[in-house]
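Backbone shape codes:
===
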Amino acid sequence: MNQPIALVTGAAGGFGSAICSVLLDSGFFVLATDVNGKALDHLAEHLRGRALTCYHMDVCDLARVEAVAAEALQHFGRPVDVLVNNAGIIGKNFCLQEQGPQEAKRIIDINLTGCFNCTSVFSRNMARQRSGRIINIASVAGIWGASGGSAYAASKAGLIKASESWSRELGPLNIIVTAIAPGICKTKMFGQFVGEEQIQSKEEIKIVKSIVPVGRLGEPEDIAEVVNFLSTCKTNYVNGTVIEMDGGMRVGQI
């Protein structure tokens, strides 16, 4: 079987479903994993008839990650070619709140420890075939910080540095590790952070246009296109790269 295999975590979310769709279009057999079984069923129905298999998987449950990896290996007879660590949550956690530390732990466990679990398990299998791509979905919050979102920012900063470290460890085995750091994107997760009504308001659109040179919010499909490029490009010289995708917000405009 020469069809490449990709596994996407958090596959039922905004980024995840777009990533699954574009990889399917590129000829991948996609293993979609998510902790939300109902949303995963909806994804399977939406992409029915395509080369997609769904697994209920919590990235924080190491035993379950290992079980999915073993099942996929047994089914295909070889490791996955691409791992997209996309599973994550966002949440408001203020340092003055009593519940701040507990919420921070939950966010970091899912966003960072979950990526450690998946990368450790699937890279071991990739090492046997001396090839693989690992793509981590981080955030510009991991570069700039985020008021009211320190745990989220810390988890994404940790993921960026872990990606760079893994690129050094795994590069000699021809396992290429990269990260994408999206800016403001139109997803339910971002809406939960700032309020759905705000990202739909004319005033919010005006503010976005004033700080993002391309004049719009990012779309999940934007991120999916770059995941597709990193999954399919022939060069291995992008190893260790962190791609900021913020529409130019970092440089701004006059």
The chain has ten helices and seven strands. The CA atoms of residues 79 and 124 lie 9 Å apart. The mean pLDDT is 90. The two ends are 53 Å apart (CA to CA).
